[in-house]
Structure to design on (1030 residues):
């Protein structure tokens, strides 16, 4: 797919990157490399680091990250290249002619150890009081290289104030090692461009424009920087203490809802390989911890699809059948708070393209403090709602002031997968050994469509299953084998699909009041797209603004994080492409085992529309509780 | 009339003659003459100009650039300023010749921020060249287009490092890039780019006029031709001199009228400091290589004060991206301050020499790789003074 590359954020280090020939075979093919005693052949342009990996030789790294462009700044991965006076950063050195490399010569050992000593001399804090204790790359390296003292001293006072200005991300630059991973994440991977290096020399520091606190810049709180920080310099704003207090308070009815992605990843926090789902085990653990109810966010995901899917059909009806040109298409999904904030900052002119439906997290909160409160006979002021999310932006979302339509905060606390794992450990529980149990009623059932929300393309697939059945009155299985809408699955940055509507049926009763018939849709080709990562989102939006192919889409799903929520800023660290794939596999595999795989077939959804939201989706009550509006934030924030 | 004289650069020269000669020659001829001359880069690294131009000429691209590095940030260096002020024709004609050889249409003079007072006079000079058809479209009717733009640096020493210079031209932080790929294939905006020092380029017209073989008769075995040196410090006649490679430090000091001496810092802050016993050493790539800065210290000077000053410079001027340089220079400066207080015995120096070695080996660019030079050379060459307080 071709796009004009209009970079909003500075390209920064991209040109520092290893230049790879487009067609290595044509210009000499394989090159012989000798690493220590070992000889091997690698394609032209392979970095020394990659070659060493192939040869099974371990090279320590710090600033290197598979997801990011190359920086070559920490100098931990240096090796000796025959014929060169200085050592070379193996991550940044492309092999273009035969080379002999030494990876543990005296020079290399001296340099590595000294570089580590230097980094540690400037690294403030003690490991035991750090969120990243036992999962810190600096700590690991120190151990690997036998750091046993502070030959160049050790800072004893913090130099910088900790920035905890946002409910989402905390930045403690005293622990920063200037690896620029967060900068490259923000500028190159996400193309948001909030973080950069400030000042120079010994004063060099990672910061924001004018060194402002994070809440005064255009940060979307996706937390991808946290996922890639090697140390404890970046972490999420942790509400564990408040949650424990609520649990301990007998007057509080504490409810936790769990999103689809954490269950597919939390095992990693307990040493299990990526891609192990622990849904049932987590439910048991949560009850042991003391939560009064354990609900499945997937129920709310189903509800979201009912509202958002209906909204899509209604937009299409108004535009195509009634010719109302004020209707904005394509409709964008709105369940990702990072994406929503991105639009609010960078493309406020497209705010009306965002579905007005709240995210599942927030919808659930509103339902809990109204419908559920009624059913259970509990005063909503005594209900505390916690949401386990793979996400740091969700912490911001639940604190958005407009998210209290019931008169109470929809969601009181957003908790990341990492923080929940911490709570489980604090409770003395080894999660993998928990017996399995189900979610609590009255929201015990959820569809598989809600579950796949966790992966990029999942919301689109869930929506299509419901919308297409509503429109055609055909079983989706007759259109897509086994109801798997594979064209919108996968990890390609941007996916596009066309679905011709050849046959229409009668609108289901639930929405018949809004849309009397579907005749106008007959012969229309439904065009949809999916993107993950804001860099890809930007390409789509720029294409729409330029009147390109995506401006003709009807519906577009966008998730701010690479891979979708399963690669979110609240997920276990590390994350990389392989891990994200494993988590996705776990989610899709679990989905196959579920009985109900369409949102509108979830019996609890049918129940809520017959008992509470009796006027159906997009009704006044829905609008009040389940829909929201957006804020024009713009790029200049002058607080 | 020019007041200076020297064997090559400061010799008689008719403006425009070198360029006219260049256009009488083919690109290969020019490269051949430069190769024969064995001219090496005068910016410090000493890379053969013929090779650099050849590599860039061979790189396939619709767009190439030639950059003249006039950032002249090395403390104690001011010879490029003299060339730009008094011999701009040599510099600019060298640039046009380079553009012609490598196939660039755009030349950029990256001028040190503090030299902004030269800006209007240089621009006037370029305008004059355009009028004489020595610059611009269809130069001298030979069908070659080339123009020169001047870009002002903003005062960062590291922006003299060629890849940091390129980053700065692109509008980014002045930070050195990973190399390879080198600018000759992947330079400004990713295009093949030559970066040459002012003096290197200013030598080219003379070589073309008189031949590479003539040029190679000057100097030593491995260091051909002449070198401009900027002499400063404790002497009667500071200034810029053109000297033949191979000249001894002692001869230089005589030129400068320096007496009662203790030390000479050769190559600026990032160079090395020698004591009296080494004044017989030669200026040459094979002995004491230098970008041209010679700083003289007499017996009144305290070498640790001088060293502290150098290290403060590097702490401040490091771009801060790589670990050895960002933190290493701070640690070396702290060590100097402790030494001044007598806080470190000679036996405690090993870890600092290890650190210096690490910086030389593992820093990302030349700044960090050479910043320990004054530390190591001063501590070693003046150990009596430092550790045994004999003065
Ligand atoms: C920290 C640092 C500063 C430098 N400053 C200059 C400078 O001011 N002028 C210059 O010509 N070269 C400077 N250089 C050398 C350049 O990187 C480059 O080698 C030179 O411009 C190439 O030109 P030459 O081949 O003609 O010498 C510097 C190098 C380093 C590492
Ligand atoms: S050596 Fe110094 S100036 Fe060069 S890249 Fe490293 S920190 Fe920057």
């Amino acid at each position: 797919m071709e796009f004009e590359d209009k970079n909003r954020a500075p390209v920064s280090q991209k040109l520092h990157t290893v230049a790879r020939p487009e067609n290595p075979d044509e210009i000499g093919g394989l090159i012989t490399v000798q690493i220590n005693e070992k000889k091997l052949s690698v394609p032209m342009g392979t970095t020394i680091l990659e070659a060493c990996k192939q040869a099974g030789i371990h090279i320590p790294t710090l600033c290197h990250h598979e997801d990011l462009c190359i920086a070559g700044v920490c100098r931990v991965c240096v090796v000796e290249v025959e014929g060169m006076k200085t050592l070379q950063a193996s991550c940044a050195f492309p092999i273009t002619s035969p080379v002999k490399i030494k990876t543990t010569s005296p020079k290399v050992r001296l340099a590595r150890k000294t570089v580590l000593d230097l980094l540690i001399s400037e690294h403030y804090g003690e490991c035991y009081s750090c969120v990243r204790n036992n999962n810190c790359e600096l700590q690991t390296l120190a151990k690997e290289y036998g750091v046993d003292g502070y030959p160049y001293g050790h800072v004893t006072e913090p130099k910088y104030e900790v920035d905890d200005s946002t409910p989402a991300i905390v930045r403690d630059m005293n622990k920063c090692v200037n690896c620029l991973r967060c900068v490259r994440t923000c500028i190159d991977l996400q193309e948001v461009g909030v973080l950069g290096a400030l000042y120079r020399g010994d004063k060099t520091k990672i910061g924001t424009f004018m060194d402002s606190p994070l809440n005064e810049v255009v940060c979307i709180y996706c937390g991808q920087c946290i996922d890639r920080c090697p140390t404890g310099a970046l972490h999420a704003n942790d509400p564990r203490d408040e949650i424990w207090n609520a649990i301990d308070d007998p007057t509080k009815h504490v409810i936790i809802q769990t999103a689809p992605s954490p269950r597919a990843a939390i095992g990693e926090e307990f040493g299990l390989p990526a891609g192990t789902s622990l849904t049932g085990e987590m439910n048991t653990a949560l009850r042991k911890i003391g939560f009064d109810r354990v609900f499945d966010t997937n129920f709310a995901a189903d509800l979201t699809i009912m509202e958002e899917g209906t909204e899509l059909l209604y937009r299409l009806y108004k535009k195509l059948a009634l010719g109302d040109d004020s209707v904005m298409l394509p409709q964008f999904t709105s369940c990702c708070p990072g994406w929503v904030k991105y639009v609010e900052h960078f493309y406020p002119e497209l705010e009306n393209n965002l579905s007005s439906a709240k995210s599942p997290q927030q919808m659930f909160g509103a339902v809990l403090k109204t419908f559920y409160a009624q059913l259970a006979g509990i005063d909503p002021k005594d209900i505390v709602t916690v949401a386990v999310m793979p996400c740091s932006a969700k912490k911001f979302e639940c604190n958005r002031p407009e998210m209290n339509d019931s008169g109470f905060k929809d969601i009181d606390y957003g908790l990341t997968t990492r923080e929940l794992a911490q709570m489980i450990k604090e409770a003395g529980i080894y999660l993998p050994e928990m017996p399995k149990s189900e979610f609590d009623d009255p929201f015990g059932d959820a569809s598989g469509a809600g579950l796949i929300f966790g992966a990029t393309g999942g919301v689109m697939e869930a929506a299509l299953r419901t919308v297409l059945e509503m429109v055609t009155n055909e079983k989706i299985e007759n259109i897509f084998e086994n109801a798997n809408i594979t064209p919108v699955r996968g990890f390609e940055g941007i996916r596009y699909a066309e679905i011709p509507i050849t046959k229409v049926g009668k609108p289901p009763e639930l929405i018949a009041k809004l849309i009397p018939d579907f005749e106008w849709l007959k012969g229309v080709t439904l065009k949809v797209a999916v993107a993950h990562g804001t860099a890809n989102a930007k390409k789509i939006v720029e294409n729409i603004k330029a009147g390109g192919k995506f401006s003709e889409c009807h519906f577009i799903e966008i998730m701010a994080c690479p891979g979708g929520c399963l690669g979110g800023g609240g997920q276990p660290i590390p994350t990389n492409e392989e891990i994200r794939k494993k988590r996705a596999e776990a989610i899709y595999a679990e989905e196959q085992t579920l009985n109900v795989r369409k949102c509108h077939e979830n019996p609890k959804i049918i129940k809520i529309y017959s008992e509470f939201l009796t006027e159906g989706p997009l009704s006044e009550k829905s609008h009040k509780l389940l829909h929201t509006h957006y804020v024009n934030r713009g790029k200049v924030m002058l607080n | 009339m020019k007041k200076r004289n020297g064997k090559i650069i400061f010799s008689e020269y008719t403006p425009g003659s070198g360029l006219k000669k260049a256009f009488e020659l083919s690109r290969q001829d020019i490269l051949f003459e430069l190769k024969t001359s064995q001219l090496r880069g005068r910016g410090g690294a000493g890379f053969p100009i013929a090779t650099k131009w050849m590599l860039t000429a061979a790189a396939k691209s619709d767009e190439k650039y030639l950059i003249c590095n006039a950032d002249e940030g090395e403390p104690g260096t001011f010879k490029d300023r003299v060339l730009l002020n008094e011999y701009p024709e040599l510099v600019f004609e060298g640039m046009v010749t380079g553009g012609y050889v490598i196939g660039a249409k755009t030349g950029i003079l990256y001028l040190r921020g503090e030299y902004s007072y030269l800006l209007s006079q240089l621009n006037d000079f370029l305008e004059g060249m355009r009028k004489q058809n020595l610059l611009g479209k269809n130069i001298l009717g030979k069908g070659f287009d080339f123009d020169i733009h001047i870009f002002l640096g903003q005062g960062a020493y590291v922006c003299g490092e060629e890849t940091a210079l390129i980053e700065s031209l692109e509008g980014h932080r002045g930070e050195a890039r990973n190399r390879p790929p080198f600018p000759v294939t992947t330079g400004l905006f990713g295009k093949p780019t030559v970066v040459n020092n002012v003096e290197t380029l200013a030598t080219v017209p003379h070589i073309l006029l008189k031949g590479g073989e003539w040029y190679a008769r000057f100097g030593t075995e491995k260091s051909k031709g002449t070198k401009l040196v900027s002499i400063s410090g404790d002497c009667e006649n500071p200034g810029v001199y053109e000297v033949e490679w191979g000249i001894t430090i002692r001869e230089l000091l005589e030129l400068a009228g320096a007496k009662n001496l203790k030390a000479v810092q050769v190559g600026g802050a990032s160079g090395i400091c020698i004591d009296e016993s080494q004044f017989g050493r030669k200026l040459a790539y094979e002995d004491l290589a230098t970008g041209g800065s010679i700083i003289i210290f007499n017996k009144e000077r305290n070498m640790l004060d001088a060293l502290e000053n150098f290290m403060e410079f590097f702490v401040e001027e490091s771009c801060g991206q790589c670990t050895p340089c960002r933190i290493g220079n701070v640690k070396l400066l702290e060590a100097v301050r402790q030494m001044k207080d007598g806080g470190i015995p000679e036996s405690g120096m090993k870890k600092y020499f290890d650190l210096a070695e690490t910086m030389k080996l593992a820093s990302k660019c030349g700044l960090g790789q050479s910043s320990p030079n004054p530390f190591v050379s001063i501590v070693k060459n003046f150990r009596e003074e430092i550790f045994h307080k004999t003065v």
